[in-house]
UniProtKB/TrEMBL annotation:
Catalytically driven reaction(s): 5-(methylsulfanyl)-D-ribulose 1-phosphate = 5-methylsulfanyl-2,3-dioxopentyl phosphate + H2O
Pfam family, one: Aldolase_II
Enzyme nomenclature, EC number: 4.2.1.109
Pathway participation: Amino-acid biosynthesis; L-methionine biosynthesis via salvage pathway; L-methionine from S-methyl-5-thio-alpha-D-ribose 1-phosphate: step 2/6
Annotated family: Belongs to the aldolase class II family. MtnB subfamily.
Name recorded for this polypeptide: Methylthioribulose-1-phosphate dehydratase
SUPFAM superfamilies: AraD/HMP-PK domain-like
Cofactor: Zn(2+)
Cofactor: record remark: Binds 1 zinc ion per subunit.
Organism of this sequence: Streptomyces rectiviolaceus
Length: 202
């Protein structure tokens, strides 16, 4: 039996993801056809609505979404994101209900500068990641890129860091997750803010 964890059907999920993608694209975080988004529609079995591959993410419609299984394989029409398997892996590992992937300049620059990960502490903005106080220290992991989503998923799993719902993929971009698309977006904005701040520190 399927346990539904989302109130959204596939078309409604497509509309939500299209709106989220338009917003990220307006920030310049999904240039070209870069970036992708997903929302969990069912937890058992794990099924996700994932943005279709190769589209301009600033011009998505509610139809530009593909239902996938836990391996990222399409269950219906369309070709899902090339990174659909990583979205499914993040959802399975973390229990997240939505995953965001953006190609921000700050995430790639910081991945080059701090390949071992980026430490943050004593910042009010960390409360935007669910912490109750600024008096906390967290690390944003950086993992090596791969075109193999199983390899990339293994690296992400090994790098997961407490209190940090995000990972930088070196030379590539940023993955962030949350309970739903809205929380995932807020967290993406917070993590990007942290990265931009760190860049100003030289
Ligand atoms: C310039 S797009 C690079 C892609 O390989 C990938 O990294 C990406 O973010 C978008 O892939 P997509 O298959 O459209 O979801
Ligand atoms: Zn990408």
């Amino acid at each position: 039996m399927s346990e539904t964890t989302s109130v959204l059907d596939l078309e409604e999920a497509g509309a939500v993801l299209a709106a989220e993608a338009a917003r990220f694209a307006s920030f310049g975080w999904m240039r070209g056809t870069s970036g992708n988004l997903s929302v969990v529609l069912s937890r058992t079995p794990l099924q996700l609505a994932v943005t279709a591959s190769g589209r301009d993410k600033g011009e998505l419609t509610s139809a530009d979404v593909v239902l996938t299984d836990a391996s990222g394989a399409a269950l219906g029409a369309g070709r899902p994101s090339a990174e659909a398997a990583l979205h499914a892996r993040v959802a399975a590992l973390t229990g997240a209900g939505a995953v965001v992937h953006v190609h921000t300049v700050a995430s790639v620059a910081m991945g080059h500068r701090k390949p071992g990960g980026v430490a943050f502490r004593d910042l009010e903005m960390l409360k935007g990641l669910g912490h109750g106080t600024h008096e906390v220290a967290v690390t944003l992991p950086v993992i090596e890129n791969s075109q193999d989503m199983v390899v990339l998923g293994d690296r992400l799993e090994a790098a997961l860091s407490p209190g940090m719902p995000a990972v930088v993929v070196a030379g590539h971009g940023l993955y962030v997750w949350g309970a739903d698309p809205r929380e995932a977006r807020h967290r993406t904005e917070v993590v990007e803010w942290l990265l931009e701040l760190e860049l100003t520190r030289g």
